[in-house]
Amino acid sequence: MPRSEYRGRPRPDGNVDGDDTATHPVWKGKTHKAKDGTLNGMKKRTRTIERQFKRGIDMPATVRNELERELRSLKASIGAIENRRNRGHMIKKYHMVRFFERQKASRKLKKAQKALIDSPDDKKIKQDAYVYEIDHDYTHYYPFLERYISLYANKGEEESNAVPPGHVPVPGLKGVQRPPIWSVVAEAKKLGLPALERLRDRLSSDVDPLQEPGHEATEDKEEKKQAKLKGKKGKEKKNDKSKGERKGEKTAAAAAADSSDSGDDSDGGFFE
Hints:
- By secondary structure, this protein is mainly α.
- The chain has a domain at 95-204.
- The chain has six helices and two strands, in the order αααββααα.
- Residues 27-32 and 262-272 have low confidence and may be disordered.
- It is found in: Nucleus, Nucleolus.
- Belongs to the EFG1 family.
């Protein structure tokens, strides 16, 4: 049979062999649209605005300002959502180890406090009680968004001989080694609960929990104010100096004029 006359065999579904459009539709591209207000929707809108800026599209200043404000708001919202998700992930990841170490620190603290009742002047017992108290706070207020560093040796290891990785000697406490953040917890405890919560909830290791929020901004504002005042005073001094110089020039000019007048008078008298 000539090839042009072949039409294929009919199938039970009514289609003919070679016609795959019924069972294999042609892909027309991605049809899913990111919904407004969702994380994907905000990311898509952010990319759209950034592309407009990169292309250098001419737009009125008011429109550009609105887009810049929207972009800042979108980035802040995206960062907040991602931080919240990451926080939940990290809390879940280290929940058990923090729980067990909290229980262990609590037992050690109670034991040291009982021993301190019998020997109130024993410096070693006092130090142990203090260390275990900070250990307990450490398990509570270690930053959620940072990898948790264990306080104690693994089960089956002798704590006196085994030191978990990441530990350093604690200044002022003989024979005590703890993670670096342990000392930060101890300092934050002196400042009270708000400082401990700032440490626990900080978004970055660059954030200093021992400094109250807005303190840096106040200092920067004060520094700018002082610099502005210095600049103003310098300008005033310069203006005063310029005025003095102009006054001196006028005085010198007046003196020169007087000298010239007196010279004319004397010359006239001589020739007379």
